[in-house]
Amino acid sequence: MKVHYISFAIGIASGCFGGLIGVGGGIIMIPLMLSLLKLNQHQAHGTSLFALAFTGLGGAFIYGLHREINFLAAGLLALTAMMTSRAGVHYANALPGWKLRKAFGSFLIGCALLLAAKPLLSGIGGHQPVYISVIIFLLTGLVTGFLSGMMGVGGGIIMIPAMVLLAGFGQHVAQGTALAVMVPVGLTGAFTHYRLGNVARHYLPGLICGILLGAILGGNLANRIADTPLRLTFIVVIVFMGIRYLRTTSQLTTDEETGF
After folding, report:
1. Residue 130 class from Cβ within 10 Å (0-12 exposed, 13-18 middle, 19+ buried)?
2. Is the pLDDT reported for residue 42 higher than 60?
């Protein structure tokens, strides 16, 4: 019974974070599952990805009520992301966890720098011709699907900067769209993890219930915050997590790698 309370609390924290910032919450959920539920790296990634589909479902519902989802963009992103998600899962199984963490840490820092420079890049942002936007969404989906499957995250960390900087989306619309994409993409990757034995099914009820509640709370809170502070919050969070990933070394013990 205790583990159900723990998994429920992890779900609330991850869902609220995902609904507020517009990402799946995997960068919160995975370290918590590793340290509190004692899952191994692959189990944490697979279980996270399965549960994150429900983060997207709950969060996208709230953003949808506020008309802050671009359904055309969501469809195009999901189309290619679902194609590469399985490849990302299999690639994760072929690499040690510390290498994946360091690579993703570098990516997080890069995204943070781009978003921090947004006020200086007004010429890059802005509305693009339709065919350019379609290309942006399809290419972003390819990268999103692969890294989502590989890292066990929802992919918002990739999609949001692309939509904000390259397609001229507002932060809230980008976040709502990213949450909607997480549902089909997360389930595609999660099914592959499930077939590989990487989903801890007994933790899912608590995680999913907590995620749905947390995502609704976070989504409502996000719509009460102006665009600029929300973007700055997003930057602070991913810089913090990026530094933690970059500090991972092959010499770390399991406890040191999973500490949060």
Report:
1. exposed
2. yes
Q: How far apart are CA 34 and CA 259, in angstroms?
A: 8
Compute and round to an integer the Cα radius of gyration of the chain.
17
CA atoms within 13 A on the CB side of 224: 5
Q: pLDDT by residue (tens digit) across 120-131?
A: 555 455 566 788
**pLDDT of 229 higher than 70:** yes
In the numeric block, which tokens belong to residue 185?
């993409």
Report the candidate in 173, 183, 203, 171 with the shortest Cα–Cα distance to residue 78: 183
End-to-end CA distance of the chain: 23
Rounded Cα gap, residues 80 and 57, in angstroms: 19
Q: How many CB atoms lie within 10 A of CB 195?
A: 12
194-212: average pLDDT:
89
DSSP secondary structure letters along 155-188: SHHHHHHHHHHTS---HHHHHHHHHHHHHHHHHH
Is pTM beyond 0.85? Reply is no
Confidence grade of residue 253 (pLDDT, cut at 50, 70, 90):
very low
Contact, 185 vs 155, CB < 8 A? yes
